[in-house]
Amino acid sequence: MKAPPLQERVRQRIRTLVDTHGVSHEILGKYLGLSRSMVTRLLNDESNGIGFPHLEKLCEFFQVTPCELMNSAHSLIQEVKPEEAQLLTHFRELTYTQKHGLLAVLEGRLAQPAKSRKARWGRAELTEEQQLVVDLFAQSEPEQRSAVLKVLRGTAKSAAAGRRAGTTESDP
């Protein structure tokens, strides 16, 4: 099914908002600075079109975004919900490696590690979190690996110092 043209989708959406909110054409016209009959013509496709200043005022009046005004089931433009916007904000703040690690986890590309498994070197066992760090390191860019190694070395030194001091906790 082909989507109606943008102008018609906007008109349909405005008509729906007018009906839903029970707003008269006269009240809407006063807000837009138009006569009642001009609002009727705008909504019934009897005018040249809806201008940008009127679109902006309509968005203010109905407390909707331009995207919500133009959105339809067939539209490529879709509304971004608040939690989606929050996720996008956090995602944009991540480093390259963090972004790809998160995507790998969300897409299930990383094998789910066992609760603990033996490391390749020595007899130490890795927790799920430690294995995730190792997996992310393996997927990271070469220039970023040195930073990850510094953190891992610091964690290892801290854990070794804790064991020498007689503590059983291996976390820093």
Secondary-structure blueprint:
Blueprint: H1 6-21, H2 25-32, H3 36-43, H4 52-62, H5 66-70, H6 82-93, H7 96-107, E1 116-118, E2 125-127, H8 128-139, H9 142-164
Antiparallel strand pairs: 1-2
> Helical content, roughly?
55-70%
Q: What general outline do the C-alpha atoms trace?
A: rod-shaped
Counted by DSSP, the helix tally is 9
Q: End-to-end distance, in Å?
A: 59 Å
Main beta-sheet strand count, sense and barrel state: 2 strands, antiparallel
Multimerization state: single chain
Radius of gyration from the CA trace?
Answer: 29 Å
Q: How many DSSP E strands? A: 2
Q: Give the class from helix and strand content and strand pairing.
A: mainly alpha
Order of helices and strands: HHHHHHHEEHH
Low-confidence stretches: none
Explain what the structure shows.
The chain is mainly alpha-helical and 172 residues long. The chain folds into 2 domains: 6-70, lambda repressor-like DNA-binding domains (434 Repressor (Amino-terminal Domain), Orthogonal Bundle); 82-164, no CATH class. 62% of the residues lie in helices and 3% in strands. It has helices at 6-21, 25-32, 36-43, 52-62, 66-70, 82-93, 96-107, 128-139, 142-164, and strands at 116-118, 125-127. Strands 1-2 form a two-stranded antiparallel sheet. Helix 2 (25-32) packs across helix 3. The chain is rod-shaped and about 85 Å long. The mean pLDDT is 75.
